[in-house]
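hey so i finally got around to running the thing on that chain from the lab meeting. sorry it took forever, my laptop kept dying and i had to restart like 3 times. anyway pasting the input first so we r on the same page abt which one it is
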Amino acid sequence: MKKLILFLFFLLPILATAQTSWERVVPQMKTPEKMIATHDGGYVIWGWRTISYPDQAVFAKYDLNGQLLWSKSWQARSGLELTGISGLNEISGGDVWIAGKAIGSLNGKPRKGYTFTQRLNRQTGDTLYNKYGSDTLDLKGLRNTASGPKIYGSGLRDADEIDRSYHVIAEYDENLNHIKDIGYQAEGFSFPPFQSNVFYVNNFYLHPVYSPHLYITYPSFNFHSNPDFHSNSNPPKVTYVRDYHIIDQFPSGELLISGINKIAVYDVGAKNLMPFPENLFSLQEDESRLTPLAAKDGNLLVPGTYQYSSTQRALFLMKIDRDGNQVWKQYYPQEVGSTLKAIDATDDGGAVLLLHRANTVRLIKTTPQGFILNAAEEAVAAASNITLFPNPTNTNRITLTFPKPFAGTLQVFDQAGKRWMEKTVTRTSHYPLNLPETIPPGLYHLRLCDGLGTEQAVRFVKQ
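ok and heres what got predicted. didnt touch it at all, straight out
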């Protein structure tokens, strides 16, 4: 009885967090492009149905528990062909707003390019309206205000000399009527694309631009906003933090900004730049970090990859504070070959990952400690009725039972991604596995790969 109580006590943290981790395959989508978090705790994803042109955009909405609410292909008027999506936002009330480009013929007119916006019903994904404007509009996003949604985009304003031409940020209403020019983006011979990660803080638009002196070599950002700015005026002096661009915003309002091999925090009000040292992340020799983001608790979430084998890399995710102290770090050997397309910090301290591997798009929610408790490989293994006994085990010997004879390779990894053993298994239905004598207590991944390359994984606990 005492052993049973201890066993249940040991499993309690896993059982308690199981409901906070889930995994979903996004239907009809082969290539993901963007994910946004919605105010109801859910997510909207857009991507492509195929990989050939002309392509078909697909949009999917999930709730906070990972349940698919709807999935819709891009809906347009007859005669139009989609050429790109440039904006994806949520409108107040929960509807989804899309901006993009299309080409074709409307109302019997000659074939030409159009800029369009589209509004989707938050509950069904059905189209509520389509608006079409000139192809010269470059719409990138939507900002919700008390007076209604404001659409922003950029456009070129010509000066007397080509090297003094500049881009402006302009606001439009939902009918694509121009409201005003509100600031300028950059000047110089080269004009950078207007990025979609725009922030509106303290009545300022904050957006990526490029230094006019360095052209497009180094990214920067400005936070100039002038309601009285007119297109026929000279560009006002730009204020920017050289060599950095915005990547996220902390709950405190501070900005997380990124440059070439450097990360910093920027206080907009105080105009105070606080760079982080690169050794803040304490990476191993075979690890590479991806772009970090701000966690809801003020810490940093840092995704990355590590060398899984001589030819493949897998994913990891860690949380650190601003002093570099590691809160937790999790390795995902089951995600070998996966590409992280987007990540969002969740209120419970974990993250939602948008992953792409072999024409399959998956949405994964981690636990607050970064665990993925129900990976796809485990579901396959469970469906195949592969069993380990005893599990948990307080000895170094476990027995695998296969529903049909298995032949292939067997590997054991710990939560840090360290491989503890590898065995070649000949054709058998029962396999006694002797674990290394030095293997410590913990949670382990047992990975199986047969001669056809099919992989399965089962987890076990060593007490």
